[in-house]
């Protein structure tokens, strides 16, 4: 088993090597998987993210949800609770600003916050996944904290998004890691 740091470095490199054409094709292929899955296509309140560091770009999927009248939310780093995320409503007119990682996020406005429990789906970015549904992120624990305990309550269902090249043989798992019940790559809709 490779250590987390080496895995992260390796996979971040592979996704950053994808061409614009490959990125665009991947984003379209993901929409096709979402269209075919009723529980995903019918969702009315979904959290997505803005692509960073070669991640699968969900913007075409965001526009697809908008076109259906669904509401889209983006993660915002919590201003006082380190390691935690807020989810803010996102429309084409939402003012964005870069967070401390350089990722654009909606400017904090309490009127735009949706309590996590009211989301139906949280599409999660990730660095690497394995065939058992284990996920490894950028290392901040933000999504692990957001998803902790989701199976025990009525909250949102997580759905990972990744490029095919982000699959690895096995992920070193820690006690706080939350395995995914579902993940979409351009090549496959995984369900566990
Ligand atoms: N698109 C996207 N948005 C997201 C996440 C994500 O993984 N992708 N996050 C998911 O958690 C949160 C941000 N977490 C992040 C954690 C680390 C780094 C990062 O680039 N770290 C640098 C070094 C750290 C630094 O600059 O201080 C690195 O590893 O090179 C980026 C985002 C919230 N928003
Ligand atoms: N539910 C949690 N409660 C408290 N601390 C947590 C929790 N989940 C993760 N952490 C802390 O966050 C740190 C980073 O975790 P990890 O490296 O697994 O993040 P990641 O899965 O790569 O990132 P992300 O979830 O943001 O995509 C760890 O040191 C861990 O202690």
Automatic annotation (TrEMBL):
Keyword Mitochondrion included in the entry's annotation: no
CC cofactor: Mg(2+)
UniProt keyword annotations, A-Z: ATP-binding, Magnesium, Metal-binding, Nucleotide-binding
Enzyme class per UniProt: ligase
Enzyme Commission number, as recorded: 6.3.3.2
Substrates-to-products reaction catalysed: (6S)-5-formyl-5,6,7,8-tetrahydrofolate + ATP = (6R)-5,10-methenyltetrahydrofolate + ADP + phosphate
Domain of life: Bacteria
InterPro entries: FTHF_cligase, FTHF_cligase-like_sf, NagB/RpiA_transferase-like
NCBIfam families named among the record's database cross-references: MTHFS_bact
Name of the protein: 5-formyltetrahydrofolate cyclo-ligase
Organism: Zobellella aerophila
């Amino acid at each position: 088993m490779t250590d987390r740091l080496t895995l992260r470095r390796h996979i971040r490199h592979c996704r950053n090597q994808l061409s614009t054409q490959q990125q665009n094709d991947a984003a379209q292929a993901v929409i096709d998987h979402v269209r075919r899955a009723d529980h995903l296509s019918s969702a009315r309140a979904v959290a997505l993210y803005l692509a960073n560091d070669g991640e699968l770009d969900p913007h075409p999927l965001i526009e697809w949800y908008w076109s259906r009248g669904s509401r889209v939310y983006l993660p915002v780093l919590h201003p006082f609770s380190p390691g935690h995320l807020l989810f803010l409503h996102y429309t084409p007119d939402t003012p964005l600003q870069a967070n401390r990682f350089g990722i654009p996020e909606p400017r904090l406005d309490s009127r735009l916050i949706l309590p996590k429990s009211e989301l139906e789906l949280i599409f999660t970015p990730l660095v690497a996944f394995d065939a058992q549904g284990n996920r490894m992120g950028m290392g901040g624990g933000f999504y692990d904290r957001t998803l902790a305990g989701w199976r025990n309550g009525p909250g949102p269902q997580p759905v990972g998004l990744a490029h095919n090249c982000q699959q690895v043989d096995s992920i070193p798992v820690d006690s706080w890691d939350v395995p995914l019940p579902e993940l979409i790559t351009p090549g496959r809709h995984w369900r566990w």
